[in-house]
Amino acid sequence: MKYQIMLKILMLLLSKRKITAKEIAERYEISVRSVYRYIEELNVCGVPVDVARGRYGGLTIADTFRLPTGYLTREEYAAAIGAMDAMMGQVHSESLISAREKLASTQKKERADLSVTGKIIVDGGTWGDLTKFSDKMQVVEEAMNGAKSLMIDYISREGEHSKRVIDPHVLIFKQNVWYVYAFCHTKQEFRTFKIGRIKKASFTGGTFEQKEILRSQIPLDFYYPAGKLIPVTLEISKADLPDVEEWLGMDIIEPRGDRFVAEATLPDDSRLVGMILSYGGAVKVLSPAALKDKVAKAAKRISAQYCGD
Does 205 share its domain with 133? Predict the structure, then answer.
């Protein structure tokens, strides 16, 4: 009985996305305390259900959450929809019609897999993550196109965890990373958020008035103030040229005699050192001297780790 109610609560949340504990308690004739206990167990099972108070309060499940692909096979979807069609021929029920539409909609989403819009496929997630990233992209895109506000669970570069309401206006693709330029209700100003750092996203039910955003208004050097960007000159081996071109782009790399040289303005942080080292000596720093020193010291630390074994 316990797991049957948990499954019913999960399906109800997937259908409504937001509901109060009192409504669930009344529907299934259980106590509000039991509802919260079931929600806690769903969270333990990996279902992202939030308990929120205030204007956007209630029990909410992230709009990016989907039942796993394969929860029903295509044949099972087809059989279930066929059975509903047969029943609808005998019994007219608004609930049955609604259930049939939802099941058919879920079937389409399962088939869509990584598709974000039409024939465009975007997979910005990690290896093995087939759908989570594109699910987030779909929700952000729908919010942007429909002027719908989102409640996001966001983790910053510094590890700060926050929940905030945003109004998405523009999607940005820069250096193989997707961002959304949105008005942040918490900060009361436009901010840039990395899609990959949005843990969960849900529609608040509210809408916003879309503002015209010009390209010149968007700070495309986000995350790196002028003081953190430095001019760098790199020497690149011919054998590894294609890989470095994917990192820096082809336009700033040019041949000089029997070698290739790139002059770029890059963020002066630990990731730059790590990126250079990742090419295993195929990329050599010519300037500045401070960066050469950082790379040399990092290489010595790595060498000491393995030479000591």
Answer: yes
pLDDT in tens, 127-159: 555 567 778 888 898 899 899 999 999 988 778
Asked if 81 and 104 count as a contact pair (C-beta separation under 8 A), the reply is yes
Q: Do 205 and 292 share a domain, yes or no? A: no
Neighbours of 302 (CB within 10 A): 11
Q: How many helices (H) and strands (E) does the chain have?
A: 9, 14
Rounded Cα gap, residues 1 and 274, in angstroms: 53
CATH code of residue 252: 3.30.70
Residue owning tokens 């002059």 = 263
| The pair of three-digit structure tokens given for residue 294, joined into one six-digit string | 């950082």
The DSSP line for 222-252 is TT--GGGEEEEEEEE-GGGHHHHHHHH-STT
How far, in whole angstroms, is CA 279 from its chain's centroid? 28
Q: What is the pLDDT of residues 188-240, one digit of tens each?
A: 999 999 888 898 898 998 999 999 888 888 887 665 655 588 999 999 998 88
pTM exceeds 0.85 for this model: no
List the domain range (segments joined by +) for residue 20.
Answer: 2-61
Our count of domains for the chain comes to: 4
Q: Is residue 26 part of a domain?
A: yes
